[in-house]
Every structure is written in structure tokens, then in C-alpha cells.
Amino acid sequence: MSATRRQMLARTGATAASIAFTGAVSELFTGTATAAPRPSGSGYGPLVTDPDGLLDLPRGFRYKVLSREGDRLLSGEGRVPSNHDGMAAFAGRRGRTHLVRNHENRVTAPIAVPVVPGLTYDPMGKGGCTALEVDGRGEVLGERVAIAGTAVNCAGGPTPWGTWLTCEETEDRAGTNGYTKDHGFIFEVDGADPHRTGAVPLTAMGRFQHEAVAIDPDSGIVYETEDAFDHPFGLFYRFLPEKPRGGIGSLRAGGALEAMRVPGVPDLSTVQEPGTAFDRIEWVPVPDPLADGTPIRYQDFGPKGITHAQKLEGCYWGEGCVYVVSSFAHRSEGSAADHYGQVWKYEPRRRRLTLVIVFGPDTDIDLPGESPDNICLAPSGGLMVCEDGGGAQHVFGVTPRGAVYPMARGAQNVGTPERPEWGEFAGVTFSPDGRTMYVNCYHPGTTFAVTGPWR
């Protein structure tokens, strides 16, 4: 699950960060069999300073740089693009792993995803995905463009059939920023053979500021979050595909897009008590999924209106439910109430929405606290959480019992000695065998493989 912006919040003496939350932490760990909660300690010990100044890890762990912004792609297609973001790992043949990595490139990005025939949507778009093939020893066997010509590829989600859905977090139209086509779509990417999927927008899934997706493997329904930057804020959607059985290319057949309405709750930020549940959740057809005239969140959903939330970001599927994160809410920006992060659980069979966790204010140095960015289920149980904000940046682990511990700290100063800055982490994911944690540094774009005595 990808969650969003900086603070998980329960105090750990090993770092200056503080993390505090209320609610049923164990709810976050009801994922797949490979993420079954198991008893575990409170971490792997203090972080050891990296003499090379890249990544601090606990003793016994080591990292390898798989890819770095500006290096030559092994395919010969150009240079490794900027702004490494969301990522997923898929099992390949002979013990290999395929990584599909987003590049959240706007028109100002220093290094664009190279234009490749058959894999480019809009030649003026600088975003897209690259794919890496890694063998069992951690050697990179291949690195190539997987899709190009898209824009602001932030997060997304894996499909049950082993492809990646990459999401554009923009609503720019053709003619804006030099684009030749409309943007704001989801694209399917096959990391093993990108030409199987090409660069085809899944238009029926809506045109808006996409963040993440999660798929119900039984019904095939796709849940989508919208990270809108202005008020009224984003919506939570579901897409009912015409071909629910799935498979590469099946989502192109179209379907129906609906938005969630919580009766009597126009803004989720007003709900502050963990355990609060709403039954009889309604799903309302989206009047104009392509947003030809008006962005979806501004459209007329009838006299009852629709339910909005600021910073709807990560979502993932587990135990027959979809979990959704609202990163934060600020009254000063238009929300009805303030919070530092919420995790919601939606149960499709019961049509019930429950507030599971509320994050508390961060007391880290300099910042009043934001919320976590990318989150993934760890194979030994618990979560790995990427920070995204100012000051030192970490990957934190959270055990099923709620203990928070530091797993990695960025050591690359991308600011100045007077005003140091560290690139945020993103795209944390594990290899199919659970022995390697992959994680990106957003800037300077770097992909790390972390191995060691994982429990």
C-alpha cells in the first residue's frame, strides 16, 4: 500500500522521530499469506552510519545500488530517468525478479523517460516507467523503458495477473505544458515484456489525479484513490470492469466508474474516532468519467452530493477488504477538520466503511508532521513505511504489535551544509522470496536492494 507524506508516529529511542497513533494497528497486517503476522521483536538495532554516505542500515544488513538517475540504461535506450517513485516486484523465470518503477516526471524533470517506438503515449510527456530484471544474486541483467510519454507517474498497484497499473497524478489536457494528448489516466505495464501492453490509456477508469489502485481478486473490481491538490478534494472510486476475470489487456474492454458516498458525511476528515463505522455505503455513477468539461470531483452527483477527502493516497487489498489512506487534512487548506493521517477499511460484502487508525502529530525536529508515503506489507509480518518530508528521511518498520523501529536512513544530502535536505524514500517492496527489500530514493533517483538477516 502506498500511504503518503511523513509521519507514522510512535516513539523510538533509536531515532529522533516520534510516531504515535490510535486504533487497531493489527488491522494493517491482515494481508496475504506471505505477510502473515508472526511474533517479532522491536527491530534490528540502531542504524550504522554508511561510510559511503548513501544509506544507513542496522548492523548485518547491506545494500546494493541497482540503478541511479543519469546512468545509461542497459537497453541502450538512453539514460535512467529522474524522480523514482512507486514500484512493485514480480516473480520471473529461473528465480529472477522483475521490478517496475514509476518516474514522477513533470515537464521540469531533468531527465525524461526516453521515447521508445510502441511504448510512448505522448512524445511530450516526460514520465513513465522503467523495468529492471534482477537475478537471484542481486545482479541487474536488464534495464529498459516499460512505458514513456506519460506524466507525473506517482503510484499505482499490481494486478492479480502480474502486471503493474501506473497512475498519472495530473489532469492536464492536450495543449497544456506542451502536451499533445490529454493526461490523467491509468496505464497497464508488463515489466517482463512491455510491448505486450504498450502505451494505451485505460480511459474508462476515469481521468483525474490518480494515486493508487487495489484490485479485488475475486470480483475483479478495481478501487482507485484520487490525490487532488485543491478543494473540493478527491474521491474514492471503484471500477466495475466488463471483463472481471482479468488478464493482460482485459481492462481495455471498459466498464463502469462509480464514486463512494458515505450518507451524511461529505468530508471524511470530520471522523476522528477509530472504530467508527458506516453501513450502507453507496456507490454513485460518475457522470463524466473522462472529465471532458469538468473535473470529476466538481461534477453534479445529485442532491445528496458525494464524499470527499484530502490527500487520498495509498490503498491495498487484504482479507477481503480494501484499505485506504488519507494522508492528512488541514482546515487551512479547505478540509472540514484537521488530522495527521487516517487509515480506512472498506468491506465490500457488508458495504461497511470503518476508520481503523488515526495518526497523531509528529514531534520530529523542524516539522509538525506529515504522514507516511509508500507502505508495503513485510514478509515476516508488519509494515515497511517510507517517510516523505523535510529533515532526515527514514524507512520505518512497524511490527504487528505496533512497535516502530528504524530500518533505513537516507544519507545523501541533496541540499547545502547550511540547509541540508535528504531525498525522500518511495516504492518500498519485497522480492517474491522475501529475502530482498527494494526501495527508491526519489531524488537523486536511486534504487537500492537491501539484504540481511530478515526475520
TrEMBL record:
Pfam families tied to this protein: PhoX
InterPro entries documented for this protein: PhoX, TAT_signal
Name the record gives this protein: DUF839 domain-containing protein
PROSITE patterns: TAT
Coiled coil segments of this chain: none
Taxon lineage: Bacteria, Bacillati, Actinomycetota, Actinomycetes, Kitasatosporales
Domain of life: Bacteria
